[in-house]
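Ops channel
N.P.: pipeline sanity check, posting one input/output pair.
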């Protein structure tokens, strides 16, 4: 990869600003955990795995500035930092997974002094990043078995290096297939209203010389029905224990079109994005963002004055439309209530 999504450098958090891509490659540096939280909320960084990494690094950043007043005071400070992080993006379970991981890490090291804990949290946050990249590569290797030479793949939103620590989930399947020498072509849904497919996925694939074309979201059904799409591969922000998948708004319509035309619909789902505490997707909280993100592109208004709009950021695809869930530990097939537990890590 020719770019880094997020890194810890010189005791600061550095992020590639995804709001200005593809026209500008700009890195932002953060010295305060509150600014990291704001960057997550405002989508400077986005994508469930990347959000989790950013949260872990933000917690480590905030911990670095806590006073050395003993473990109980330090632990209380960690809780306050985590509370700020938890109010950034509600749908992506990786956010809460990372928060709980950092809390558990502290709680198992009560015998350490505060300066040691501060350094260990930095190392743990960096470990979250490196594990994510390794897991995504393995996920891609499991997923590439479903891609044949000459296939056209349709993907929705951005589940690539920009949405993760640096390799991707859905895009990892594409990357590995490409590295294996398979000729692949990718149709990137533009993904209104934030245009993650048009701005980010297409940019990433172009950087790696993987053939890609951008289509509007309402073209997906046409291309699937016309036989131009061999398989669909998308990511997930939260997957329930029964295999229901919450992903960027518009994913459900792609899944319906794929199901109606017997086109496989695969979900690249790192286990950190699988929420076994939820029995179905109806329990997944769905983020609703500012209507201005629908009515405007940057400062240009698209809609008539006085006409309201809504921006529901995610939808839930029922498990019956998901051909398989691809994880870093293997592939889960229906019925997911039985197969998902077999790929989940043992804690």
């Amino acid at each position: 990869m020719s770019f880094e999504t997020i890194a810890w450098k010189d005791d600061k958090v550095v992020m590639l600003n995804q709001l200005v891509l593809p026209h500008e490659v700009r890195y932002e540096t953060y010295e305060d955990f509150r600014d990291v939280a704001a960057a997550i909320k405002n989508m400077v960084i986005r994508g469930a795995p990347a959000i989790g990494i950013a949260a872990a690094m933000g917690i480590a950043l905030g911990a670095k500035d806590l006073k050395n007043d003993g473990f109980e005071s330090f632990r209380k400070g960690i809780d306050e930092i985590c509370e700020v992080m938890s109010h950034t993006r509600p749908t992506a379970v990786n956010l809460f997974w990372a928060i709980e991981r950092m809390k558990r890490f502290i709680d198992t090291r009560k015998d350490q002094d505060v300066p040691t804990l501060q350094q260990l949290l930095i190392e743990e946050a960096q470990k979250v990043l490196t594990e994510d990249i390794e897991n995504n590569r393995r996920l891609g290797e499991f997923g590439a078995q479903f891609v044949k030479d000459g296939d056209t793949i349709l993907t929705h939103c951005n589940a690539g290096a920009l949405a993760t620590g640096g390799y991707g989930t859905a895009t990892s399947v594409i990357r590995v297939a490409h590295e294996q020498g398979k000729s692949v072509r990718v149709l990137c849904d533009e993904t209104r209203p934030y245009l993650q497919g048009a701005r980010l996925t297409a940019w990433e694939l172009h950087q790696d010389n993987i053939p890609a074309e951008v289509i509007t979201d309402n073209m997906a059904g046409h291309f699937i029905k016309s036989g131009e799409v061999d398989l669909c591969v998308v990511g997930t922000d939260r997957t329930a224990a029964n295999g229901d998948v919450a992903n960027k708004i518009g994913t459900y319509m792609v899944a319906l079109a794929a199901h109606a035309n017997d086109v496989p619909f695969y979900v690249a789902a790192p286990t950190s994005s699988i929420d076994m505490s939820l029995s179905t997707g109806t329990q997944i909280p769905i983020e609703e963002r500012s209507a201005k993100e629908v009515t405007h592109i940057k400062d240009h208004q698209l809609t008539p004055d006085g006409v309201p709009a809504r921006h529901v950021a995610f939808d839930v695809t029922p498990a019956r439309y998901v051909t398989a869930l691809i994880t870093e530990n293997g592939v889960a097939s229906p019925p997911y209530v039985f197969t998902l537990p077999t790929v989940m890590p043992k804690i």
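N.P.: looks fine end to end. The chain has a mean pLDDT of 96.
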